[in-house]
Every structure is written in structure tokens, then in C-alpha cells.
Design a protein that fits this description.
This protein is mostly helical and 181 residues long. The chain has a domain at 59-180. Helices cover 72% and strands 3% of the residues. The chain has 5 helices and 2 strands, in the order ββααααα. The chain has helices at residues 15-40, 60-95, 102-105, 110-143, 151-180, and strands at 8-10, 13-14. A two-stranded antiparallel sheet has the order 1-2. Helix 1 (15-40) packs antiparallel against helix 2 (60-95) and helix 2 (60-95) runs antiparallel to helix 4 (110-143). The chain starts with 7 loop residues before the first strand and ends with a helix.
Length: 181
């Protein structure tokens, strides 16, 4: 008699897949909240700018980019979350033999599950990248454009463009680890 591996809960999905899907959904939820808070701010309000030198004030295109990148970010996070929720639900349905339509679904194809997880992870990464670009534009609206050479803008943007991609690298590594298991 063959025993199942401790990681494997059923023939259709493993706990690491469900855990990775939960992580994707949780991260997306937090960042979606950040996107909504960002959209509540009016970047074109002149009282939002802390720039004293009028030549360094960001043009209206920066404010438009803030809104555009927030919308792109939101759509990426929503796409990623919906894919992850669908995959998680498929795994749960197959694991529940009492579900009336379980025989129609038969098994969750592990390759399809992995590809779905990868697509969901890519959506999250794109959402983070768009959110980072929105924040770079927020800094330029508030503190002055980077082209102007504002030291305050650089001081805010440099950690952002170093830390966010570093965290995304860790995130992608974990998703890829789950993808290969």
C-alpha cells in the first residue's frame, strides 16, 4: 500500500499551492487598499505641492500618470486575486467529494494549477510595479520633479526603487518555488 507524501492532501492539489494562493490574495488585498487611498488624494490640487521653486513644479501630466498608474495597479491586483480565488475554489471543490458537480471537474490538472498560479503572481508583480510608478509620480507632484534635481525627491524615490524591486524578487522566488512543487 502506497502512502501519500505529507505535503500532499489529495491527488488534485497540495497545501503549498493553497498557501501560495492565500498569500497572493492577502498581498493583493493590502495593496488594493493602498490603491484606493491613493485614488482618494487629488494630485492636481495646488495645495498638495511642497515645492517652492516654480520651475520644479510637476505638470498636469504627472497628476494624470498618478491616476492612470493607480487604475492599472488596481486592475492588475483584481485580475490576480480573481485568478487565485478561482484556482483555490477549484482545489476545494475537487477535495470535497460531496460537492454535486465534483464528478464534472474530476481533477485539477497540476500543470494548469501551476500556470494559473504563475499568471496570478505575474498580475501581482505588475500591480506592484504600477503602484511603485504611481508613488514615484506622487513624490514628483509633492516634492518636485526628478528632472529638476530635487534632493528631497531623490531621497524619497531612491529607497522606493531599491526596496520594492528587492521585495518583488523575494516574492517571485516564493511563487516560483510553489510553482515547482
Amino acid at each position: 500500500m502506497e502512502t501519500a507524501s505529507p505535503r500532499r492532501q489529495s491527488g488534485s492539489g497540495t497545501s503549498i499551492h493553497v498557501t501560495a494562493l492565500d498569500a497572493i490574495i492577502n498581498v493583493n488585498s493590502l495593496f488594493t487598499l493602498a490603491v484606493f487611498l491613493g485614488l482618494a488624494w487629488n494630485p492636481s490640487d495646488p495645495s498638495n505641492s511642497l515645492v517652492s521653486d516654480q520651475s520644479c513644479v510637476a505638470s498636469a501630466s504627472y497628476a494624470e500618470d498618478v491616476v492612470s498608474f493607480h487604475v492599472y495597479s488596481f486592475s492588475s491586483f483584481l485580475f490576480s486575486s480573481l485568478i487565485a480565488l478561482a484556482l483555490k475554489q477549484a482545489v476545494r471543490i475537487v477535495r470535497n467529494p460531496g460537492f454535486p458537480y465534483a464528478e464534472l471537474l474530476a481533477h485539477v490538472n497540476k500543470s494548469a494549477l501551476r500556470v494559473g498560479m504563475l499568471i496570478s503572481g505575474v498580475g501581482s508583480v505588475c500591480g506592484c510595479a504600477f503602484l511603485m510608478m504611481a508613488l514615484v509620480n506622487v513624490v514628483q507632484v509633492k516634492l518636485g520633479t526628478l528632472a529638476c534635481g530635487s534632493s528631497h525627491s531623490f531621497a524619497a524615490v531612491v529607497p522606493l526603487v531599491i526596496l520594492v524591486p528587492s521585495a518583488l524578487l523575494v516574492y517571485v522566488s516564493v511563487v516560483l518555488y510553489a510553482f515547482t512543487r
